[in-house]
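re: ur question from earlier - yeah i can do the single chain one, its not a big deal. heres the input i used so u can compare w yours
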Amino acid sequence: MSENHRNPLPTVDIIIEVAAGGVILIERKNIPNGWALPGGFVDYGESLEAAAVREAKEETSLEIQLIEQFYTYSDPSRDPRKHTISTVYIATAQGIPQGADDAKRAKIFTKGQLPNPIVFDHPRILSDYFVYKATGRRPKP
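and the output i got, formated as C-alpha cells:
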C-alpha cells in the first residue's frame, strides 16, 4: 500500500532594518499582488540562513547581515497558494534597495507609513516585530 505524503514547504522571510529607521518591503510581481517582506522558498540542500541571505539579495539587490532568528509562522492559511512554514529573520543592510527577481520594487517604510495591501500574514509579522522592538516581547504561539 502506497501513501502520498504532503508536507508544508519551508520558507524564509527577512525583516531588513536600515539606518534610516525603517524596514524594506518589496512590491510583488506575482500573485498575490501587493507588498511583502523579502523572502521565499528554501532550496533543497540549503540552510534557512543561506536562503534568507539569497532571497534578500535576489529581491532587494542588497547584501544583508543576519542579526537574529525572530519567530516561525506556520498557520496553514498564511499563504493562499499553499501551506508554508516561514522562519523569519531580522537583518541589517546598507544601501538603496532595488527591486529584482520577482520584486517590482523594493522600498523603505517606517511603522507609521506602511503600504497597502501587504500580503500573506506579513501584517501580523510586522506588527509582532514592532511590538518586539518596542518592548522586547516576542510573539507567543
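The chain has a mean pLDDT of 95. not sure if urs matches, ping me
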